[in-house]
Amino acid sequence: MDIHEYQAKERFRSVGIPVPPGRVVSTPEEAEVAAEEYGGTVVIKAQVHSGGRGKAGGVKLAEHPKEARDYASEILGMDINGLPVDKVLITPAEDIDTEAYVGVLLDRKAQAATFMVSAEGGIDIEEVARTNPSAIRKLSVDPRYGMLPHQAYWLASFLYKDPNLVDQARKIIAQLYDAFVSSGAKLAEINPLITTPAGEMKAIDAKMSIDDSELFRRPDIAEMRDTSSEPPSETKAREAGLSYVKLDGEVGCCVNGAGLAMATMDLVKYYRGKPANFLDIGGSSNPDKVVAALEIITSDPNVKVILFNIFGGITRCDDVANGIIEAIEKIDIELPIVIRLTGTNEDRALEILEDAGLSAYTSMDEVVKKAVELAGTA
Ligand code: GDP
Ligand code: MN
């Protein structure tokens, strides 16, 4: 789950990272009031779950409250990378001397939190990684010991020569690790970490993504979810209790069980098709879940065929077949649907489906081949 900059900044403040003050508003009038209260130049920042807001025109410096209001009204109507902006952060502008990048992410390969730092901050770190990888220093933190003082120092001294700045940076790096761990994050980023002409260091941007599996034990963070900022299909899937990940292929997959869902995607790829999604409808034959699943799949304009792959263990195939038919009756679907059911009561299930005019298979190989063929010709 992504959280907004202003929310990530709250987490950063709580561990002691120096972050400028800020206020979140949703109207130009409130922006003007906030700018007046701060006095001087303020920054108006779109709050959306997307990087590169600056480039997209979602970060503006305003010298007067009136200007703050104009920029706020401009930014509040914007759409940044497909995401509508309904909140802006107003924050006093800082004088910037240098901009660095400091980030930590859950690194599955290293089985640890891995830091990346670069003196070339402010811009896209992926770009730096591509064009100038030696400008990045990396370090994995052993979760058994946490961030050790010499590690924070080693990272900080890559960014700055001045001992005073190295000292500030090593503290911030250690604090960022605390924020990362205590929030159950999979990513925490400061870009840019700035120094001011007066030699102070501050995090003027903050980005955090929380591991969904950590949310159940962190209700205060779970509350930060902003459904207006996530794709509607993901909100719908979560609320229906489905595990769904959108991909960019044409074969819409509806499968019971995460392992079978993965295997189905593999087989689609094997036959040179492309899965449109990962979707695990779980172990139930509840028609409501199937309806939700079909609504989600059919709302993706790339989908050309719907592929069901159901293994009936405790779940009975005839229940699932009835669920599918009920679901198809409820929503109008023009796409071809192919269904594979096997396991408990499969004979009855196949009869039910064939009576309803649906293509039913028991072989996974055959059904996937058919689905890929239909996706290609549709
Ligand atoms: P992003 O584009 O979404 O990463 O948003 P950022 O918060 O990182 O802002 C983008 C850029 O705007 C920064 O790299 C700065 O160059 C500039 N910027 C943001 N806040 C300030 C500020 O307080 N003062 C100044 N002078 N520039 C700022
Ligand atoms: Mn940034």
Folded structure, characterized:
The chain is α+β, with helices and mostly antiparallel strands and 378 residues long. It has 3 domains: 21-92, Dna Ligase, domain 1 (2-Layer Sandwich), CATH 3.30.1490; 98-222, 2-Layer Sandwich (D-amino Acid Aminotransferase, Chain A, domain 1); 231-375, Rossmann fold. Helices cover 39% and strands 25% of the residues. It contains 13 helices and 19 strands. Strand 17, helix 11 (317-330) and strand 18 form a beta-alpha-beta unit. The protein is elongated. The site of guanosine-5'-diphosphate has 16 residues, from strand 3 and strand 11.
Task: Jot down its keywords.
378 residues; D-amino Acid Aminotransferase, Chain A, domain 1; Rossmann fold; four-stranded antiparallel beta sheet; 19 strands; binds guanosine-5'-diphosphate; binds manganese (II) ion
Overall number of domains: 3
- Provide the CATH superfamily of the largest domain: Succinyl-CoA synthetase domains
* Unique bound compounds: guanosine-5'-diphosphate, manganese (II) ion
Q: Profile the largest sheet.
A: 7 strands, antiparallel
Under CATH, the topology of the largest domain can be stated as: Rossmann fold
Give the low-confidence spans: none
What is the terminal-to-terminal distance? 35 Å
Number of beta-strand segments: 19
Oligomer: single chain
Number of helices: 13
Which class best fits the helix and strand makeup?
alpha+beta
Strand content bin = 25-35%
Q: Determine and state the CATH class of the largest domain.
A: Alpha Beta
Overall 3D form: elongated
- Roughly what percent helix? 25-40%
